[in-house]
Each structure stands twice: as structure tokens, then as C-alpha cells.
Amino acid sequence: MIAFCKATLVTTTLVLASGLSIAAQQPLSIQIEQAARAELERQMAASGLTEPQVEVAVVTTRAAPACTQNVAIEALDTRSPLRMRFLARCNDTPGWRYEYVVRARLTAMVAVAAAPVAANEALTDAQVTIERRDISNIADPITTPEDAVGQMSRRMLRPGDILRGGQLSSPVMVKRGDAVTMIARRDGIEVSSAGEALDAGARGAMVRVRNANSGQVVRMRVAGPGMVEPVGN
């Protein structure tokens, strides 16, 4: 009799534990939302966004059959927050596989134009500010004013426009035919000579320079307006 009671108790405990495990499983839509949020937070952390916030919603309304196991959630396509695809898979026998679409809204503190900016105009401190904006469909927002000030806009900007890396470029500091100063530094000693730029370039660009004294053509890096330096400087 005692053995029977113990067996009954063990069986009842297993049934209750199994039932509690299934009941504890969150609704599939919540599991997918959590998976999407985790993926987006990983991407935002890697991108260096400032104060990012995310809102996630499962667009697909398909109701999935019950699953006695934990449903596996797999990211299929997370390139665009506006349309992310996830696969939900149940490994029961027979199991099931369903695809779900998730839409997310991302906001962050980003650089925006504070005043009109003409095309090919270098941005100033007064023309750049920081605001929270929706960047769900913007892949390259600039996050700090320092990364924008001094850069040139490839197109006209209106107040409130989000500043994007692909729309800005470094101003040209050396033009072809310019007289430039060639500066070399070693062990605290600086030597300069005159040269002629054979290419145009922004700061950090590699250009060909003809030494005015020797006539030798060398490749140098643009260090500033009218200044170039050896690559290893």
C-alpha cells in the first residue's frame, strides 16, 4: 500500500510538473517579440547608437498549434527593422514550422541639421544639433556633432534633416596643381620642403606629389590644408 502511494505521488508530481512547464511557456508572439528585441539590441550595441529605444510588434497573425516542447525561434532576415522575418519551429512528432514577420521602430539621439545647409557647404557647430529621431529606415545616422562638423553635405539640407554618413564627405584640402608643403617628422625633428600636388584629396587621402627640388614624384597623405606627409609619419 505504501509503495502504491509513493508511485501515485511520483506520477502525480510528474504530471503537475509537465503541466506547469507547458503553462509557463509564454505565448508564441511574445517569444518572437523577445527574440526580435534581443537581435535589435545586439545590432544597436554594435552600431554605437546613443540612447537607443525599440518598439517591436509581430505582424503575422497566424495561430500556431500547441507544442509540448519549447518552440525554437530562428532569425531569418533582420536587415531591415521595418520587415524582419523569424522562423518558429516545434520539434514534436509531427512538428511544425511557421514564418512570422516582425516590424520594429527604432529611435535614438542622432545629429540633425539645425539650420539650412547648402550643397557642398561645410557644416558648422551652429548648423548641427542632437535630437531623438526615428531611424528605423536609416542605416547610417551620425550620432555625435563632432562627426558632422567640418564635413561637407553632398546635397542641400533643411532644418530637421537627419545627418547621414553617406551624405557627408570630407572637404578637399589639396587640389591638383596646388603648391603644398611636404612635412616629414622623425625623432622629434621636422623637415619640410616644397612640392606640387598632382591629385586632389581630403584629409587622410593619398595623393601624388612632385618634389619641387628633386622632381621626384612620391605618394603622400594629406595632413591638412596645403600640407602633406609621408605615409609612415
Q: Which keywords apply here?
A:
five-stranded mixed β-barrel; alpha+beta; elongated; five-stranded antiparallel sheet; 2 helices; 14 strands; disordered N terminus; 233 residues
Topology record:
Layout: H1 2-24, H2 28-47, E1 50-58, E2 72-77, E3 84-90, E4 96-113, E5 128-134, E6 152-153, E7 168-169, E8 172-174, E9 179-186, E10 189-197, E11 201-202, E12 206-211, E13 217-224, E14 227-229
Parallel strand pairs: 9-14
Antiparallel strand pairs: 1-4, 2-3, 3-4, 4-5, 6-7, 8-11, 9-10, 10-12, 12-13, 13-14
What can you see in these coordinates?
The protein has 233 residues and is an alpha+beta fold. It has helices spanning 2-24, 28-47; strands at residues 50-58, 72-77, 84-90, 96-113, 128-134, 152-153, 168-169, 172-174, 179-186, 189-197, 201-202, 206-211, 217-224, 227-229. The strands form four sheets. Strands 1, 2, 3, 4 and 5 form a five-stranded antiparallel beta sheet that branches. The chain has a five-stranded mixed barrel with strand order 9-10-12-13-14. The radius of gyration is 30 Å and the shape is elongated.
